[in-house]
Amino acid sequence: MKKEVKTLAFDFGASSGRAILGTFDGEKIALKELHRFSNDPVTVNGTMYWDVLRLLFEIKEGLLKTKAEGDLDSIGIDTWGVDFGLLDAHGKLLENPVHYRDARTVGILEKAFRKLPKEEFYQITGNQFMEINTAFQLYALALERPEVLERADCLLLMPDLLRYFLTNEKGTEYSIASTTQLLDAEKKTWSKRVLDALSIPEKLLTEIQPTATKAGQLSEAICEELGLSPTEVIAVAGHDTQCAMAAVPTEEEDFLFLSCGTWSLLGTELPAPILNADAYQCNLTNEGGYGNKASFLKNIIGLWLIQETRRQWKKEGEALSFAEMEALARAEKPFQCFIDPDDEIFVPAGNIPKRIREYCQKTGQPVPETKGQILRCIYDSLAMKYRYAAEQVEFCTKKHYEKFYIVGGGVQDQLLCETAANVLSKTVVAGPVEATVYGNILLQLLALGEIPDLKTGRRILLESEQPKVYEPQAALLETANQAYEKFKEVTALC
Question: Is residue 276 a contact partner of residue 283, using CB atoms and an 8 Å limit?
């Protein structure tokens, strides 16, 4: 290996994106944020779109800012899952990708299950059923705008589409393919049964590429426009959750993890998917990860509840920092009332505190009145839902996990980590905050041959950033266990 390897990670979330330089000196990875930008959907004539050309502009801005750092060895892009763009026979974008929160898939699941029975659907794809999944977005198009699918020659999921803009190379990376509910989870190929049942043209789908694959170089046009040298573009784990999974700082084969941000993804890494009746009843998802591993996960609403509560109070004239909100919650007595974070009433934007009060009143619980009580309800409820999901994962895998690894932005919230340790009665290992970026960079290093395997990469990560450990407090465990029984009782009422 040469003295330093410079990689650039583009990490796109649902509301913002970053370009972060990762410099590997052979022992540690150092991060440097070069560019940050908003990712704002645009609604036109009742349809919500991603402003994908603006995102390409921001990618170019990020690339320009790397010029002061010296030549890059590689570039990787990760994004959210399920959304896509359609190209015509000339490789031109037919229209901006539609946002997963657009209303076009409302009520689509029951229509799809009439074409392909729900249990058979799960046995093929192993995906948690959500209306936003690519399969159902495409089925909505087939029903409502079939002419669009007829004009389309190729479908590219968001990270693959952005990579295509840079390289002119088409392909579908494995992890992002596994979010679509179009992939046969065992064969790791597109499912003709699903495609035919939902009237989705097979011609739209490109070859599936293994995670951490060299997928082309910056095109001649991009290099000329930006004044850059040809640079490898890597198909890292296109789905950000799988980048975060790669950066779980463990040397254990069996571990339980939580990728904690706006959404919470809780699960484990397995050599093969679980597609049996237990997994189907628990509605757990199987995603593809590096090395053809399966990530066995539960998708849970996460810090969205705190973020949206903060936005509501700001509208009402009180702008609180996240640290101030955590302090208000910490001052309150724990385990007084609970919500199910995944209840449909908490999904839309708007007045979350009001809905929490209504939920507690409906379920016969003490109604939280102060800001601290509302926040404490959120913290406690998230920790309870984590335990519920962890028990489902343990039930399906027939394994018990002593440690609970938390990565992502949520690790900055000490109260959440402490509460999780007490409620799950497990040691919590928290960090890194920038797990998605670290994972993106590790996968680039693997593709470049700079590190031999992911186990080595995770060891390098432990050298680069030390996680914080939270132990469960023995004095609180019985109280937490009693509160968990109450949580299950009240959430069953809704």
Answer: no
Residue in this structure with the two tokens 């198909």, named with its chain if needed: 235
Whether 114 contacts 120, CB under 8 Å: no
Contact 267, 390 (CB under 8 A): no
- Which one, of 437, 438, 494, 425, lies nearest residue 464 by Cα? 438
Could you give the CA distance from residue 286 to residue 271 in angstroms, rounded to a whole number?
11
| Per-residue pLDDT at 348 | 78
Helix, coil or strand: residue 183:
strand
Q: List the catalytic residues.
A: 240
Residue type, 238: G
For tokens 């009180």, the residue is 318
pLDDT at 2 over 60: no
Phi, psi of 116 (to 5 degrees): -145, 110
User: What contacts 374, CB < 8 A, 6 or more positions away?
Assistant: 309, 353, 356, 357, 368
> Residue 157 in contact with residue 134, Cβ under 8 Å?
yes
pLDDT of the residue at 494: 63
Q: Provide the CA 89 distance to its chain's centre, in angstroms.
A: 31
Element (H, E) at 306: helix 304-315
Token couple for 73? 């060895």
Kindly give, in sequence order, each residue whose CB lies less than 8 Å from that of residue 84, ignoring residues fewer than 6 positions away. Answer: 97, 134, 137, 155, 156, 157, 158, 161
pLDDT in tens, 67-78: 999 999 999 999
Cα–Cα separations (whole angstroms), residue 303 to 146, 198, 308, 371, 426: 37, 34, 8, 16, 21
pLDDT, tens digit, 9 for 90 and up, residues 71-101 = 999 999 999 999 999 999 999 999 999 999 8
Residue ranges of alpha helices (H) inside 145-187 are 146-151, 158-167, 174-177
| DSSP symbol at 104 | G
pLDDT at 1 over 60: no
Burial of 309 (0-12, 13-18, 19+ CB in 10 A): buried
Identity of residue 376:
R
- The region, left, alpha or beta by phi > 0 then psi within -120 to 50, assigned to residue 449 is left
Predicted local distance difference test score (pLDDT) of residue 344: 84
Question: Angle of helix 322-330 relative to helix 371-397, nearest 10 degrees?
Answer: 90
What is the Cα–Cα distance from 45 to 104, expressed in whole angstroms?
Answer: 13
Gap between the Cα atoms of 376 and 328, Å rounded: 8
Q: Which two tokens stand for residue 428?
A: 């919590």
Structure tokens at 119: 């249990």
CB contact at 8 A, 281 and 474: no
pTM beyond cutoff 0.85: yes
What's the mean pLDDT in 150-175?
98
**Count of CB atoms situated within 10 Å of the CB of 144:** 10
Task: Report which DSSP code applies to 37.
Answer: E
